[in-house]
Amino acid sequence: xxxxxxxxxxxxxxxxxxxxxxxxxxxxxxxxxxxxxxxxxxxxxxxxxxxxxxxxxxxxxxxxxxxxxxxxxxxxxxxxxxxxxxxxxxxxxxxxxxxxxxxxxxxxxxxxxxxxxxxxxxxxxxxxxxxxxxxxxxxxxxxxxxxxxxxxxxxxxxxxxxxxxxxxxxxxxxxxxxxxxxxxxxxxxxxxxxxxxxxxxxxxxxxxxxxxxxxxxxxxxxxxxxxxxxxxxxxxxxxxxxxxxxxxxxxxxxxxxxxxxxxxxxxxxxxxxxxxxxxxxxxxxxxxxxxxxxxxxxxxxxxxxxxxxxxxxxxxxxxxxxxxxxxxxxxxxxxxxxxxxxxxxxxxxxxxxxxxxxxxxxxxxxxxxxxxxxxxxxxxxxxxxxxxxxxxxxxxxxxxxxxxxxxxxxxxxxxxxxxxxxxxxxxxxxxxxxxxxxxxxxxxxxxxxxxxxxxxxxxxxxxxxxxxxxxxxxxxxxxxxxxxxxxxxxxxxxxxxxxxxxxxxxxxxxxxxxxxxxxxxxxxxxxxxxxxxxxxxxxxxxxxxxxxxxxxxxxxxxxxxxxxxxxxxxxxxxxxxxxxxxxxxxxxxxxxxxxxxxxxxxxxxxxxxxxxxxxxxxxxxxxxxxxxxxxxxxxxxxxxxxxxxxxxxxxxxxxxxxxxxxxxxxxxxxxxxxxxxxxxxxxxxxxxxxxxxxxxxxxxxxxxxxxxxxxxxxxxxxxxxxxxxxxxxxxxxxx
Length: 735
Ligand code: DGJ
Prior knowledge:
By secondary structure, this protein is α+β, with helices and mostly antiparallel strands.
């Protein structure tokens, strides 16, 4: 890994074994991009890659010259209004109303390691030899503002992490009306855009479309990253598959409003931008104030979509997620939500916990409804003290009893919310986000607390930490069940209202930071009406998230398959729930429900007392299986084999880093009469090693046989007699 600068050519070359990224200081002192992709040899200059020339209607930078126009130049962090008419990476409104800027190269900095981002989550290094960082400092002398563009290249991963920072020194204030985290110009548009879209209970479905001239975008203006879109875009070549071919991934480490867009211009170049959505964003900078954008993590892979995902998994599991639980296998939990909803008392809870303990489950999670007057979704949010009518011994007493049974205890909170029917709202009606003299819309009868205000966060911190200090709590589920409307903070002056949505998310991060620092051994699981805030920003604080409220095994295959494009298996909460499924009313076999959920942070979400003796035996075996295999599944290398979006079959597998063992999941969605023979071809094994399957030590197969000839899938080995929703798990062990 190196970052080289040539004084002569004024070029920076960042490279490691797999990638090269080349930046040039242009003749007008702004920054151009010469190359980003597979590693190429280092040379003093790649200036021949800078294209230019005369074109009708183009505007040119230098008087008398008809060659150099920013419109034709691939740039690093472009502005609008001089010679480039495409969408810009940033916009600064000045006192005289102008938005024209000119940021020119001033200096650069190359150092080992990676700096922390102020108040924001970001990838990190544990040792400074793991990465190197280039900071390029640009200056606009008219407005006296510095722009620092930061690029970190990791030594052993094809990753460049980018962010931008504005430092204003002028006496006249400026207003940032757009500040994307990165912009990337590529020389052609022969790509397909891959992104993850959906809705509640249909999160992160894979969408792929060809690029066309114009703008194609994804976004959230919902105050969270949302279930509708995920802050991730990949551009792949049309012939790129899961296993081969070029792909560029861009993932934003942020949990609030975002915009991701790909602009294909009239001459067939592509500009990809990702960052905070400019709508609802306006950030005033007075003298000596600064603004830091969130980070974008760019991955280049020539090993297909799986290649890209495996890089994200490794980086996000080990250098984004943090803390005690980062490298630990996750406890197998039981959550009472789908079993009881709000309708429980201590006796019912203990009964569920006891049955779970008998089957080997390790952690009991008490969900919504334990506090205030929370008997339905109309009241109680904000009142974080126990409802002793339901739980006479309190959370302290209940947690003790659960631990006496032999399980750990976890608790649900929804820290950012309040019901009007609550003590908190009655004491502080002005703490909610609302616009004065306008109706405040509700969602699920709840309102959002103004987390852009420190006193509100301090209050919630005190309330939560009191519960966490007093009782014996090993896990917290942090929920967030609505999108933001009528966004306005009553304590801010008019000019600062454009800060509220970003400051809100910074407030959420600050509360997470305080709680995770004070309670380092508690495992935090994020949640947002299922997976509506499942993003890299939250992963920095909570190493796992509830993937979706949809626990139907068939629907879950698509959700987990899509989520795996960016997020590691260890981050995906995945539970076995009752049938008919509460979201889609489908009845799938207990075996298949578990075989899907194994590929995640595994658990149960039902009352096991309602199962037959035979079913409870099955659950016991599932728990044993997961305990034996979770180290491999949660830390191994994940491969998507067959997509449920295009097939009646879904298949995926995890291989140990040393290739000594693997677990394969194969799922048939609907049965077909008189179907053909099926084979599943595996990935990632060692061609020269021999593996036996499912303890059948008499028959061993070379890795190459399993990868190139494949395993013939035997109908009779699938659960449910090979009928609808049947499945099989193959466990491979080196001989
Ligand atoms: C939404 C979550 O996704 C569910 O798992 C559950 O915690 C409910 N909220 C509780 O209100």
